[in-house]
Amino acid sequence: MTPVDDKLRLRRLAQNSVFVILLISLLALPGYLAWETRTQWDVSQNERNSLSQASEEVLQKLDGPLTATVYATSHDAQLGNVSKIIGDFLSPYQRSKPDFNVTFIDPEEQPALAHEAGVQTNGEMVVEFEGRRERLTTFNEQALANLLMRLARPGEKRVMALSGHGERKLDGVGNRDLGEFGKQLAAKGIKTEALNFAAAADVPPDTSLLIISSPQFDLPEGVVDKVLAYIESGGNLLWLLDQEPMHGLQPLAEKLELTLTPGVVIDPQAQRLKLPITFSMGANYGQHPVTHNFDYITVFPFARQITINDSEEWHSVSLVEAAQNGWVETGKLDGGIVFEPMYDVSGPVSIAATLSRTLYEREQRIAVIGSGYFLANSYLGHGKNLDFGVNLVNWLAGDDDLITIQPRATLDGSLALDEPALTMIAWGFLIVMPLIFTASGAMIWWKRRRK
Question: What are the TM regions of this chain, as residue ranges (predicted)?
């Protein structure tokens, strides 16, 4: 072998060594950077693998360590590794809140601990925050967000609903009742009770909010006096009105300095969503904490107009305006519905209002909604009625910093491929690509050998 061949061999050896070093460095550098700086991107449609902004904000309101104990097995005949499934679900929450500590306990290996904690199902989680404890068995963002909101809520809120005069019931199952709405409030840590003045002398002093929802019979004068006394003392009120008679509550409207126009709001825009024109579409909202960043449609069936009068006592906001091209129909609805300039009131129409004032060094809050139907069981699922209603109650009860979690639809589900497609993918990755790489390597080796 000549000196030239030796130099050429050494040069190739040096080149190959440098190439190997650079290749190893190139492969190792991303791994090192990934280990030192934990950064990730969610490229799924609708960002289904990331927390919503609302969930992030609820976590931020939990000032202090949050602990969770998950009682789940690693081997389940139907679900597989339940511990891993729950762990993956909780990972985004732990990244958002570093002091969210999660402990896993296998109830099969440690049955005594599971029994002591009162665990009933495989995959149950017990969450604790500042001495309060909640349980979770359904793992999705909405369910966990409700749990976190209950933990974040400062103290229990007591909401009383006036009853005994045919009002809509917060635990009722009828179409006109508010039972589904009541369940949602309970899931978010708001306790609801019926208030019947036949059994109660006055509104309990620890009441955070009184709800009056569409009584069907005239309220006795003594009951109206107690309601007015509650307002005079600074109590918060949610008044749901329909187009029906006032049933003795006209003094309450006078106390709040509101004019309640008879008739039903007609909104032609409802036809675009294939709804009756007697359904008012809420899309124009006033500047208010209830509607802050609330850019959704709400539906108010058979709404009535609420006119805010100038007042030195109350600060009033028109919360919802509807029927931009509609009117208030004062005639009967069983015939042809046509705008009559002499009798009807042209739109836009205010159908919801809030009032507030400072009394006894605290803010008194009142909301008057011109449709009791919008939270009824039959119509709660229309638009974003539920979220609007929860925002209302949170603001009225003094928890306006707790927002409604907007559940996101999962747009990109599982990928289903037929048998030929799976076969092509298998051949491509397991046979064709390895053969291409092998042939390329052999060709490079043969060319170098011939030099």
Answer: 17-35, 424-446
